[in-house]
Amino acid sequence: MSAELVRAARAVQQRAYCPYSKFRVGAALEAVDGRVFGGCNVESASYGLTICAERMALGAAVAAGARAFKRIVVATDAEPPASPCGACRQLLAEFGLDLEVIAVGAKSERRWTLAALLPDPFVPASLGL
């Protein structure tokens, strides 16, 4: 794992806006061309409008023209480290199931492929595309 990617996720984690849950999350998404895109969770008093760090990072990447990704680091202070939520898994799956997902917590880390975290996903092929 790239220590630089973990540092990027930790740095953006510090900028999270989470006055309700106090659960700070940072994500660093690495594109295949080496660019890194960060995102942090942003909560809303209307809880359903909250956006996760992973989706923020993906949005930044797509806005910059990236469409192929290598890995994502998700940083929290949780133990064991928290994996991406189902909505984030589904949105990341849009860009490929071979994505390496690394969750880092206060003391440890966990690793998966997106395919392992989201078996039998709904993807573009599900639409017959």
SSE arrangement:
Layout: H1 3-13, E1 26-31, E2 36-40, H2 53-63, E3 69-75, H3 86-93, E4 100-104, E5 109-113, H4 114-117
Parallel strand pairs: 3-4
Antiparallel strand pairs: 1-2, 1-3, 4-5
Keywords:
129 residues, alpha+beta, Cytidine Deaminase, domain 2, 5-stranded mixed sheet
Compute the average pLDDT. Answer: 96
Oligomeric category: single chain
What shape does the CA trace take? globular
CATH level 3 topology: Cytidine Deaminase, domain 2
The stretches of 5 or more residues where confidence is low (pLDDT under 50) are none
Number of helices: 4
Order of helices and strands: HEEHEHEEH
| CATH homologous superfamily identity | Cytidine Deaminase, domain 2
Structure description:
The structure is a single chain. This protein is α+β, with helices and mostly antiparallel strands and 129 residues long. The chain has a single domain, classed as 3-Layer(aba) Sandwich (Cytidine Deaminase, domain 2), CATH 3.40.140.10. A 5-stranded mixed sheet has the order 2-1-3-4-5. It is globular and about 40 Å long. The N and C termini lie far apart (34 Å).
